[in-house]
Amino acid sequence: MYGMLLESVQHFVQLEYGEFVWRQALLTTGCKNTVFNTHQLYPDSLIPDLAAALSAITGKPFDEFMIFFGRCFVRFFSNFGYDELIKATGRYFCDFLHSVDNIHLQMRFTYRKMKSPSMQLTEVDENGAVLVYRSTRTGFSKYLRGQLLEIAKQLYGMDVSIKVLESQNDTPGGTSGPISIQGGLKTVIVKYRLDFDNREYMQRRVHIKAHPSQLQLTPVNSMLLLDLFPFALILNEEMKITAVGEKLIESWMLNNVNRSPLELIGAKVTEHFKLRRPSGITFTWENIKRLQTVLFEIQLLKGSSAKGSKDPAKAVDPKSVTTQVDTSSSTEDASKIMTSIPRRGSQGLRSILLKGEMRYIKDINSLVFLCSPLINNLEELREMGLYLNDLNPHGLSREMVFSGFSHYSRLDLMCEREEQRAEELETSLALADSWKRQGDELLYSMIPRSIAERLREGQNPHETCQSFEEVTVLFAEVQETITGDDSIKYAMTTVNTLNAAFSAFDELIHSPMAYKVETVGKVYMAVSGAPDINPFHAQHMADLALDMLQSIRQLNLPGVGVKIGFHSGSIVAGIVGLKVPRYCLFGDTVNTASRMESSGETDCIQVSGYTAQKLKKLGYALAYRGKVAVKGKGDMETFWLQGPAVKKK
Questions:
Q1: Longest CA span, the chain
Q2: Burial class (CB in 10 A: 0-12, 13-18, 19+), 111
Q3: DSSP state of 219
Q4: Tens of pLDDT along 35-71?
Q5: Helix, strand, coil in percent for the chain, rounding step 5
Q6: Can you list the domains of the chain with their CATH numbers?
Q7: Of 181, 198, 25, which Cα lies nearest the Cα of 96?
């Protein structure tokens, strides 16, 4: 699907549910895109996946979100002027429903890879209509429902109620139809009943009576119709061809060398033509008669593809073929047209695609396909073996071919540039996502993730200040016993040593068990129990201290050791500063923990008596050091932490 559908979903979900809910939905679906490009293709599964994610987050039903997404798309495409396109289809909602396939047909020029569904009205009355929806994608029937409800409300000012009458192969939440036994996807078919006030449409469009002056018109020879539309077809109730336009006969002959054109008359239309659009319907009298306002695309089959090929020697006698479609037509007229056409061309020609409307003419009880070849430029005209004077003398067929020729190269260049820009934009978005991730990592290295998310949501930095009843604060100071005469060389050695030691310590920090607060000079500071509350803060900090001591030994740096000390108690923490904001800790606990480190010994871990009591209960190996004079606290009993907790058998 194109990005415009996802853009509409993103815009209105953020508007009605907030940025946080949208980010949670993207995270749940595993979608890495934070911005969608209008003309970029994305997986069909994204729409139902996002609906399922939002349903799980908000508790609302999945179908409700699919309907909501359909409504969002209608609101969103007004920014591109497509609401004016819909309004231009007709005065009434029923006019729009008749024209949905035609709109999709025109949209293919802008969105060339669009896989549009097919929709036709099968019944129309004063209380509404019956709409048949066909698609190769499942799970989007509720999405269509939302679109119809919003179009009726916003563009036609009417309320519509929709219910499903029949449904085939429509799997809720799916994106591709089930596989048929013969291969390929089964078509999803859903029949809707749309109830709305349709009285004015019926009065103006269906129950309208012919003006008396029209009833006085004299009969017109059907051959005049074929002169005006040289590519026209006339079909009877059995869907057999009763008359063919001169240029269509000539095109048939170009694609069916050594076959008589009289084979067309009386043959089933499906033997020589393939219905390309509308898709999903069978070529029957009733189906075609119901779809008189829909644009049809019919492909002329080549000789190798046509069914029921006959030997030209056994061709049907022109006199025995009925081509009379009114009282003034005759088989002789038709046979003269067919036999007077010169043969030219070869089997290597491009297949002709005819586009037009199927009209029912009551006087002759026939369907007339009023069409023109679908040709974009002079090159395609040549590939089909046609000339400009072969095209309809009326309308804009010839002008469109000339216009297509003059603008084709320019349009092609513009499309290439747009595709290149789309690729560049996609690359830029990927780089932006990469830079954002790097920025996030840098931010999270300065302040805790939970605090950063609160600041992103607009919380004042002063409001991040928080008190913690009990945490454990650790200080570790790298000790160097080797000095040198060269102060610059010694300083560089110190920097390398600290980088190696602190990097090793960083690898030991795992949230939420511990958080690195800062490094000041040769001192490394960490805390457990803040900003994420952790009831096992003393245990986790003891394990971290032992691992730090072991990591310094494993580095095997000559003359390098570490003094470690920690203490447990209450603190206050919050963000300080604007230029380089830091998450700082305050309180007597921080000072006491610092004294445990400064009064300790190299390659030893000193803990306060209060923290030691907690660790003893957990089975850690501790040795009583005695009383130590602590500035501002007096004498304090301290302990050496000598080993991890012993697991009980």
A1: 127
A2: middle
A3: P
A4: 888 878 888 889 999 999 999 999 999 999 999 999 9
A5: 45, 25, 35
A6: 1-80 (3.90.1520.10), 112-208 (3.30.1360), 229-303+349-394 (3.30.450.260), 459-645 (3.30.70.1230)
A7: 198
